[in-house]
Structures are given as C-alpha cells and as structure tokens.
Amino acid sequence: MKTDRHVLIIDDDQDFVHLMSVYLKRSGYKTSMAADGMQGQRIARTESPDVIIIDYQMPGGNGLLIAERIKQSAATSHIPILMLTGTQIEDLDAWATRAGIERVLNKVNLSEGHLVRVLENAINGALEPARNVDALFSSFRR
Question: How many other CB atoms are found less than 10 A from the CB of residue 61?
Fold first, then answer.
C-alpha cells in the first residue's frame, strides 16, 4: 500500500518504536518519533501528523495527560490519537475517551495488519467507540 499518511509515535521504548516504524513504513506511512510527551507535543504542532500513537506509561507523564494536552491545543485537537498499553488497566477505556483518545491497543498482541486497519479507520473517522478494555483486548485475538 502506498500512502502519504504521516504517523507520530510517542513512546519511550525505542525498540518498540523501531518495530512500529518498520511496520508502518512497510505499509507506506511516513513516521516521526518522540521519546517523551513534551517532544511529542512539539512534533504534533510542527508536523501536524494524520494520527498519533501514544504509549500509556512513560517517564514525565502518562499518555492520558499528554493526549489531553494535544487535544486542548487548537493546532492539534483534530488529530486522532491511539493509545498503546502492555497491561490491562481497569477503566482505562473511560479515561482514554475523556482524554480524547480514539482507541486503546494492546502492545503485546498487536499485529501489523491490525495496526494498519485501525490507523486507517482512525484517519478516516470510521472507528466505532470501544465499550471496555476487555472487549478491546479480546478483539486482537480474532
């Protein structure tokens, strides 16, 4: 697939960021990377990506706080945000929705194909609202 879509990945795990970047570039996406929330917010403002993928747990602020800040800025409020997490956290879907996050994805079971489908749906405004974290995590096993 050839695309001119731009994805910003905000995550402190550089090995995971590299893997995500490989997946996305193979599918034709341009990628930018940020190792922390402050850098991610700057890149979001200056590069205006089509979608942001943000980790839940990072030094200097969790992904919910960073997503809220991105959504509160007029320059970046329109950008869809997907959150990644490696652990199941009670009520995360409700917190994520309040922070303006479109979908929570499980890092552990994330496949390249599923990632690309969710990204395209987020960019096109076609994501259905998630009901709860258990449902989100079980959807990756289909």
Answer: 15
- What average pLDDT score do residues 46-70 get? 90
Q: Which residue, among 52, 47, 48, has the nearest Cα to 24 in the 3D structure?
A: 52
The residue type at 77: S
Instruction: Name, in order, each residue with C-beta under 8 angstroms of 2's C-beta and a sequence gap of 6 or more.
Output: 28
Q: What is the DSSP letter of 61?
A: S
Which pLDDT score is estimated for 6? Answer: 96
Euclidean distance between CA atoms 79 and 70, whole angstroms: 8
Mean pLDDT of the region 97-125: 86
pTM reported for the whole predicted model = 0.84
Give the pair of three-digit tokens for residue 51. Answer: 């979608």
pLDDT at position 137 over 60: no
The C-alpha atoms of residue 73 and residue 67 are separated, in whole angstroms, by 10
